Structures are given as structure tokens and as C-alpha cells.
Fold each of these.
Amino acid sequence: MADERCCRISKKVQICLAVGLLVAVAVLAVVGVLKWLQRPKWNGRGTTDNFAGMVLERCNVYTQMLQPALRNVDCQKIQEAFKSSSISKNPCNITEEDYQPLVKLTTQTIPCGKTVLWSKAKETAHEYTRGDREMFTLEDTLLGYLADGLTWCGDTGTSEMNYRSCPHWKKDCPNNPVSVFWKMASRRFADAACGVVYVILNGSISNPFDENSTFGSVEINNLRPEKVQALHAWVIHDVGGVPSDPCMTSSINKLKSITSQRKIAFRCRHNAGLPHSLRI
Ligand code: NGD
């Protein structure tokens, strides 16, 4: 009799344990599926928080304070055009045409002899143009100023920006909003340059000129020989000196041969830290 009761109790315990286990497995499976469904779609950072607000604020600062000659541009329209370039669009299938309305609203002429390109030397180039307000990198133009350092993308079937993730240019797809933007802006910036054009390169790395960079693959090929008098390269290296003249390395020789093929005169100088003037 006591044995029978004991057996019934242990059976009940077994059933309870089995049910408990089943419930636990089901809960874990549901949590797993939910997590999988909510995983970021892309490998890159999502749209910068408050993207539209930042674009509007940058536009106001640039047009009211930095370049008052542009005070009549409509920053509200610029903000709308920037958002519309990617809203409701497949972020792997963006084209330069998507930016045409934005480009039209941000037209700006850079005087001849004032264009500064850079490659692997962003901080150095900006340090220079902060000191000489007459010289312009792409990021010192309205279009570049609006976008520098920001990430943005949308998606088909939604009128929202994707704040969780955006396509990574290497891991996902090349025709994403940010890459297409910089390629388009860099191409136009170089195409519009005239007089002497300057480029600031990084002499502290083994290949200051990289043919795969935006400078090496887009900008150099879009300088127009008929209006670009020469390309002057400044190779900036760390204070403390470099063992040999960076202007004589194979990397810079490659740049020299590209400019020669394109019938653009070329000069190169190197310096430990920024020179007082880019004039060579
Ligand atoms: O396809 C890309 C891409 N290519 C480079 N970079 C890219 N980012 C993408 N999302 N998609 C990034 O641009 C890279 O990681 C660096 O953070 C930055 C510049 O690359 P770097 O140092 O190799 O220099 P690049 O030669 O490629 O371009 C500099 C020239 C300069 O004269 C600017 O007028 O091209 C213009 N730029 C290009 C790309 C990005 C500026 C920027 C920018 N301000 O972010």
C-alpha cells in the first residue's frame, strides 16, 4: 500500500519534470526565433541618431555662419532632399541620380587654386583648412559638410530611416547610400577643380598613394587637364623624420605616372607635420 503511494508520487514528479522541461524548451525556442527575427539586417552601423535634425542644424551653421554667401539656400528643402535620397529605397541599389535633387540645392563654386584633396590624411587636411579658411576640402563644401561622419539608409516598404543597421560597403554591398554619396560627391568635386589642385597624403604609411582609395580611383581620374594647371602633393609624415624621401617611393611614382598619362603636371613635397602654406 505504502509502496503503491510512493510509486504514484514519483510518477507525478516525473510528469511534472517532463512538462517543466517541455515548457522550458518551448520558451527558449520562442526567444531564439524572436531574436533571430529581430537580428540586424546589415553589417554596418545604422542611420545616425537624429539624422534629419543633424543635417538641418549643419546646414544652418554652414549657411549662416561659415559661408554667409550661401545664406539664401533653403535648409528645410535640403533636409527633405537628403532624406528622400534613401527613403523607401533598397539600400543596396542606390544610384547617383538619387542624389540629384540634393546636389541641385547645394550648388557651390570653389575658386581656382583652392581645392584640397586628401587620402588617409583626413585630420591633417582638415587641420590645414581650419587654419586657412580660403582652402576647401570636400568636407568644407556644403554638401560634404552635411554628410561628413554620418550614416544613413532606408528600406523598401517603409518611409522610416533604418536606425538599426545599414549595409557595410565591404561586407554587404557597394551601392549603398553612403558609398554612392561619397563617390558622387568626390567625382563632382574633382571634376569642378581648376588651377593648382593640392592633395595631402599620409607619409607615415607604406603606400601614401592607394589606387583603390577614392582619391586614387575617383578623384585623380576626374581632374580635368584642360583646367587643372598642376597637382601638388604634400606627403606629411610624423615629426622625427622618415628614413628616405617619401616623394621618391614607388607609391608616389605611381601617382606621378598617372598624372603624366593624364597630361597634368605633378610636383611632390614632404614635410614633418603640416607646412605653413601648401604652395610648393
Ligand atoms: O566606399 C566607401 C568608402 N571608401 C572609403 N571610405 C568609404 N566609406 C564608405 N562608407 N564607403 C571611407 O572613407 C574610409 O573608411 C575612410 O574613413 C574615408 C576616406 O578614405 P581614405 O582615407 O582611404 O581616403 P580616400 O582617398 O578613399 O578618400 C578621400 C578623398 C578626399 O579627397 C575626400 O574628398 O575622397 C573624398 N572622400 C571620400 C570618401 C569619404 C571623403 C569621405 C568622407 N569625408 O568620409
Amino acid sequence: MTKTECFGIPFDDGEPIEIIENALSLIGSDKGVYAVTPNPEIVMAAMKDPALREAILSADLILPDGVGMIWASKILGRPLYHRLPGIDFASGLMKELAERGGSVYLLGAKPGVAQLAGENLSRRFPGLRIAGTHHGYDSSTEETALTDEIRRSGAELLLVCLGSPRQELWMKSYSPVLPGVLMIGLGGALDVFSGRIRRAPLLWRRLGLEWLFRLLQEPKRITRMIRLPGILRAAMKERGRKKA
Ligand code: UDP
């Protein structure tokens, strides 16, 4: 595993198995640890939002998500060689946890979605304990009652799916009160695990077209996606500055 800096963010780059083993080794630490999975949209938001940037820089693991990050890193001349989408990272961790009877808590998404995701995940990873679920649309996601519940549940892994920047800020704020827990900020992953949203077929993913598949399923994302080439322009600008 190596650190590769892009836009001032030290990304962790390594074989998926290495990343997963490293993350598993962080479970049980005396304070909560967390992983962020910035995609181009999050990286661009962090350029303008110091609190988000700080939450990313304080993470224990920073994994690039989205093919745009890989392209941008190449333009910068500091290529990221591996891409482990957040959803595959979480699936890899849950597979390993299931083998040792470990547990996961699912936080976020619309009411009912996390529960459905939990049912699917326990079928997909027999042995995995769903320690609890909580949707992401009431103010109690900010309260100590929730962190108490998560602590009492004995969860080792916590999927924080509140959208960005809320999920990154949430993990930074609450990691000190969740010792032993590994958290991952995963955006819309619970919508996928619940079956509410379909993930792109493997071929589309291999071709780097996951974003297009998502756009076809959720056309209203166009207003967000239209901004994505911005990361490539930012990379070209930074490279130009470095050369000058
Ligand atoms: N969400 C939430 N609470 C909020 C805002 C968003 O739980 O206050 C959830 C939303 O339902 C969705 C996820 O956070 O499941 C954000 O998904 P999005 O598609 O924006 O994230 P991406 O996968 O693009 O990072």
C-alpha cells in the first residue's frame, strides 16, 4: 500500500486485498477509525469546503472512488493504480467479517432502506450479524442516543451512508466516541444493497462507465454529473502550474 497525493489529498493506493486486510486490522482500536471514499465530486467540494477537507484528511484510510479520480491522477502525473469502489470495499470487509461471525451496523438512506439492505446482506454473507439499522432522515442521527445505541450493538463495522459532506463530517465528529468501530462513508451504497438501485453490470464497470449506468437509472443526477469534467480541468491546471 502506498500514499499518492492528488489535489493535496494523500490517497491510499494498493491491491484490494491489502486494503481490506489493513482496514480489518484497524477494528478494535481505542478510538473509532474511519475510511473515506472520495470521488471527483467530493474532491472538488473539498477544494471549497475546509471542514470537508479536514474530515477527509483526518481519515485513517482514503480510497479513490470513481474512474474520474484515476484519470485525474494520471493527468497530474501521480497515477493511482488501483480503484476499489467503496461498495466493493465494504462487500470485501463484510465477507471477511461474516467468516468470523462479525457484525455491521447500517446507518443512512430513506426509512426502510437500511433494514432491507440488512436482510439482503445477511443472506449474501451468511454468518454476518446485522447489529442494527437507522435511517438517515431524522435529527437523531446527530444525537448521542444514536452513538450509544451503535456502541451497545457491538458493531465492528459501521456503514455511514448519509451523503457527502454529511457522512464525512459525521464520522469525524463521532469517531472519538465509537472506540473499536471501523466506519466507512459510502454515499448511496444502502440503496444498492437494498436492491432499490441496480449497480452497473461488470462489463460497464470494467469499461469505466458505472457513472453512465447510474445516470440512466437516476436522470436527475445530470445536474451533479455535468460538473464532473471539472476534476480533469483542475488536474490539467495543476499540472500546468507545476511545469511552469
Ligand atoms: N441521505 C441520508 N440523509 C440525508 C441525505 C442523504 O440518509 O440527509 C442518503 C440518501 O438517501 C442516499 C445517500 O445518503 O442513500 C446519498 O446518496 P448519493 O447518491 O447522493 O451518494 P453517492 O453514492 O453519489 O455518493
